[in-house]
Amino acid sequence: MNEIERLITLLARLPGLGPRSARRAALQLIKRRESLLEPLAKAMDEAARTIRSCSACGNLDTADPCQICADERRDAATICVVEDVADLWALERTGAFRGLYHVLGGTLSAIDGVGPDELRIPALAARAAAEGVREVILATNLTVEGQTTAHYITEKLAGAEVSVTRLAHGVPVGGELDYLDDGTLTAALRARRTAEG
Ligand SMILES: [Zn+2]
């Protein structure tokens, strides 16, 4: 496989890019070597070397703890649980949440062999039990998997001295946080309610 074919094959693996879009993207990159291809290659190289998971919350950043965990102006008494970093980004875009996060890295799935240990749920239980934590907001998606995961966490945290809440309805069923407009997401966050186990 030559370099151009390899570039196209790799680009075609990106979400939203099929083979045709990948060919177009590759051609643009090659034509714009100095303004696009070389800076992108450099940025990707740096990203691959420096970006890591925050050991506290699972966010992606070049620093560990991440900038959110390290920000003393944020409310450490409130932890918002999300499936993925994309959901964290969606909530950050709203600017409505000033607490900390816990990124699960997916949802429970018996079929795919994803259990609590794969989802950083033990780490969440440990954080929830820490002094000063008052509320855990479950912001998993309203899909079957997201709901199942939320129920599991609610039961897991039943003994802890924290209130466990869910985002309010208004989030469409099957909806993923990343696809919601900021207003809907902010409203769902403000109108959160106690989670049922
Ligand atoms: Zn963090």
SSE topology sketch:
Elements: H1 3-11, H2 19-31, H3 33-50, E1 52-53, E2 60-61, H4 67-70, E3 75-82, H5 85-94, E4 99-103, H6 121-129, E5 135-138, H7 144-156, E6 163-166, H8 182-190, E7 193-194
Parallel strand pairs: 3-4, 3-5, 5-6
Antiparallel strand pairs: 1-2, 6-7
Helix pairs in contact: 1-2, 5-8
Bound molecules: zinc ion.
Zinc ion is lined by residues 54, 56-57, 59, 65-66, 68-69.
Defining key terms:
alpha/beta, 8 helices, single chain, 43% helix, binds zinc ion, elongated, 197 residues, five-stranded mixed β-sheet
Provide a descriptive summary of the structure in words:
- This protein is of the alpha/beta class and 197 residues long.
- It has eight helices and seven strands; from the N terminus they run αααββαβαβαβαβαβ.
- The protein has helices spanning 3-11, 19-31, 33-50, 67-70, 85-94, 121-129, 144-156, 182-190, and strands at residues 52-53, 60-61, 75-82, 99-103, 135-138, 163-166, 193-194.
- A five-stranded mixed sheet has the order 4-3-5-6-7. It has a two-stranded antiparallel ribbon with strand order 1-2.
- Helix 1 (3-11) packs across helix 2 and helix 5 (85-94) crosses helix 8.
- It binds zinc ion.
- The site of zinc ion has 8 residues, from helix 4.
